[in-house]
Specification:
alpha+beta; Beta-Lactamase; about 50% helix; globular
């Protein structure tokens, strides 16, 4: 009987400890390198079809680079610009076209423009999967941020099926 009591106490303690540790941990989804590459390629292909020579950056949910592609005639500055647009989108969890508006110099949030590494120019778009942010894509090189944004969204749409889980 004593052993049974000890076994029950032990089992309860282990289950309680596991429940507490489960609450202390976080699970999240990220794009695989293959998915990030497919997104970058689809985005670059859409830009090319529109006649733009661009760079595309795909970042993970934490702002780390997964893929950067630069078309042959895209300017050398476009890789860093695309990365910063994606970084801004993932860190502020908002596309950079919207960020342009809400951080304009006459807006209360204009100070956000001074955050190191942030770039409030259209072309950075968060990548969502089942309501979770899994990364962001940034595009630079089209003749305007709105056009960069359109390419980024087309790239996301092209791989949308693989983002469902």
């Amino acid at each position: 009987m004593k052993r049974l009591l000890y076994a029950l106490v032990f089992a309860f303690t282990v289950n309680t400890a596991n429940a507490e540790s489960d609450e202390a941990l976080v699970s999240f989804k990220m794009m695989t390198p293959e998915t990030a590459l497919a997104l970058a390629k689809a985005t670059l292909e859409d830009c090319r079809a529109r006649g733009y020579q661009t760079a595309v950056a795909v970042l993970d949910r934490f702002g780390g680079v997964q893929v950067i592609l630069r078309d042959l005639l895209a300017g050398p500055h476009t890789t860093e610009t695309a990365r910063r647009k994606a970084w801004t989108a993932v860190n502020f969890r908002t596309d950079t076209l919207q960020m342009m508006e809400v951080t304009a110099y006459d807006q209360p949030q204009s100070g956000v423009r001074h955050v190191d590494g942030a770039l409030m120019i259209g072309g950075g778009v968060p990548v969502q999967a089942a309501g979770s942010m899994v990364g962001a894509v940034g595009v630079s090189g089209a003749p305007g941020g709105q056009l960069d944004d359109e390419c980024a969204r087309a790239g996301i749409a092209a791989i949308a099926d693989s983002l469902e889980f």
